[in-house]
Specification:
Length: 371
Amino acid sequence: MNIRRLRKIEWLIPLFALILCAIGLVALFSASYDSGLEEFKKQVVWISVSVILMLIVMLIDYKFLVKISPILYGISIIALIAVLFTEPISGASSWFTIGDDLFSLQPAEFAKICIILFISYIISLIQIQKGRNEINKITKLLLILLAIAVPIGLIVLEPDYGTAAAYITAFLLIIFVAGIDKKYIFLAIALVAIILPLLYFFVLPDHAKTRIDTYLHPESDPRGAGYNILQSKLAIGSGQITGMGILEGNQTQLGYLYPKTTDFIFAVISEEMGFIVAGAVILLNVMIIIKAIQVAKGIKDQAGAYVAIGIAGIFLFHTLENIGMTMGLLPITGVPLLFVSYGGSSMMTSFIAIGILLNISSQRKSGLFNK
């Protein structure tokens, strides 16, 4: 990569991500202090490995990744099928455990990138051959829907509804940018309105229904299903402006907040570091999403624009869902706060996504959206 391309790179994206990692490490230090800092130490390793992966991916032409995306898609589908036969952890068959519980890998996380690349590949290939409006033909649209439906279906079987929703968000942004006809958007909204009640009453397992009921009425079972969300809201409110101090949060240190290193890490930040730092976390996530959208707007290549907007969709969903669920605004789904929550798979996937964004940004000329 030459100097000229290096100057075009959106270096603020990895900078914002690293600041989030630093805040996350402080929160993890406090949240894992009573357990010997095991998760804190592992997270330092995950971040180090992830940054190296980001730099490697940044040097790989994203067009090459799009070109080999059918292979990556096939590998992802095989991994998503294989993980269904593993021993369930917390009720979900979502992880490959490597070594004697040394660490676990979540294929659904890594598959996010592969699926985004493949969907972008299909749509751009269709449009290059037949024109931008070609995706609105029912046969082509069904092909695209099938490509995304297979991995989503496998992830639902794990079950992991939060990750499945992240895939859907990225997909919707991609096809919206690709020029999907408004009639399909209205049709999709109508179908969702019809299907959601049917799913709730006849398809969703009891634990999923419980999460929805808890979201709507957490106070109805304060010692049971509603316990975690009530403790999270209490922790967020207790932090006020500047927080209670590291290792000083009542909910965090007394064990009332669970799981405090993953799902509810934002509540830990809010309680011990206060509104100022919690607000900074939100702002940094928003800036990463905006920068990703700007990368999509700045690239002439269709596939590059779709990949960038798909990655923006992943970041958007995780930010809204994780922070929203800790505040009681959205149902609890176990979705991590990217760059902040403990977890190797999500950390590596997020930095790989940033590496792709950096490569796309280095090749900007005139934007597809600005034609």
